[in-house]
Amino acid sequence: MPEARWHPKTARDRLILAVDTPNVAEARAVIADTRGAVGVYKIGLELIYAPGGLELAGELVRTGERVFLDAKLLDIDNTVAGAVRSAVALGADLLTLHAYPKAMAAAVAARGEARTALLAVTVLTSLDDEDLAAAGYRGTVAERVAERAAQAKAAGIDGIVCSPKEVAAVRAVVGPDMLLVTPGVRPAGAAVGDQKRVATPGEAIRDGADMLVVGRPIVGAPDRRAAADAVVAEIAAALG
What pathway does this protein act in (predicted)? Predict the structure, then answer.
């Protein structure tokens, strides 16, 4: 029997905190300030490559926290498969890879019956139509997101990472069962930074997102716990 893959139930479960810090000491401070106030801790590339970053992820797993390993895997099939097996061994609840068909097929096969949920990244929230054209892609962001979401569903991926602006369209493509995880979420009045396709927490939830990734508006807040509580309250209100 396959192990049960985790799905959010409460408003707090739906908040993923992006622990985007340059070192483990700062990450520990963020975690200490927010433990119990967020549902999942996201360990991204900056911290993965920092000394002790993956060890911190394993420590969080062992102490009962939910961990989202945002590795954004993309490589030859054998390398993707090996990385997925390593993430499974670490105990990650969620793991990202780019939504390329061969990479997704390799990841699903390597994950097997393990509990780690695979999330396919469609188009980064820092990109717009002009950025895609400059990179050599045809069509719009919306078209690329819909195409990759359909491919992810066909491959057996558990969820999609897309911007809040595409949530409703992606839900129409993949149906009710796949997790939709949205970065680019900014509370009203927060700085947009380098993101281009953003929404507030309430807007993203009402459009059909299951989980929201929030980083700088919480990590950089004077009172991190209060900032996290405010996002959770907005999620709860949107859920009705």
Answer: Pyrimidine metabolism; UMP biosynthesis via de novo pathway; UMP from orotate: step 2/2
